[in-house]
Amino acid sequence: MGKRESLSQIKLSESQREKLKEEMAAFYLDVRGEELGMIEQIQLLELFEERMAPIVYNRALDDAKRWFGQAMENVESDYYGLYKHED
User: Fold this and answer.
1) Rg value, the chain, Cα
2) DSSP state of 34
3) Cα(61)–Cα(57) distance, rounded to whole angstroms?
4) Residue pair 42/49 in contact by the 8 Å Cβ criterion
5) Half-sphere exposure of 4 toward its Cβ, with a 13 Å CA cutoff?
6) Cα–Cα distance between 76 and 26 in angstroms, integer?
7) Residue 73: its pLDDT value, please?
8) Which pTM does this prediction carry?
9) What's the pLDDT tens digit per position in 10-56?
10) For burial by CB atoms within 10 Å, which of 12, 32, 46, 55 has the most?
11) Is residue 53 within 8 Å of 10, Cβ to Cβ?
């Protein structure tokens, strides 16, 4: 089995990056009435990727673990529900 790749930094696809930059620019224009330049878009996106994405990723892992634990509890109770009662 090969070595696992580190997930310490979240990488977005180019299309995801472009969509997020467009959404940030639209947000700034709508909410703040300011134009957000290309450099500012890139800087904000890099900030979010570096600081926010790992927090969101870790939260998703915690949610998945919690869901999996509940699913395993259901499997165990379903398993014992299959037992036949002995007279």
Assistant:
1) 22
2) -
3) 6
4) no
5) 3
6) 49
7) 85
8) 0.61
9) 778 999 999 999 999 999 999 999 999 999 999 999 998 889 888 99
10) 12
11) yes
Distance between the two ends of the chain, CA-based, in angstroms? 50
| Distance set, CA 26 to CA 13, 18, 19, 34, 47 (Å) | 20, 12, 11, 9, 18
More confident residue, 5 or 37: 37
Q: Mutual orientation of helices 38-47 and 14-27 as an angle, nearest 10°?
A: 110
pLDDT higher than threshold 60 for residue 68: yes
CA distances from 54 to 11, 30, 67 (A): 10, 28, 20
- Whether the CB-CB separation of 64 and 71 falls below 8 Å is answered with no
Please give the C-alpha separations between residue 61 and each of 4, 17, 34, 58, in angstroms, as whole numbers.
17, 22, 36, 5
- Identify residue 24 by its one-letter amino acid code: M
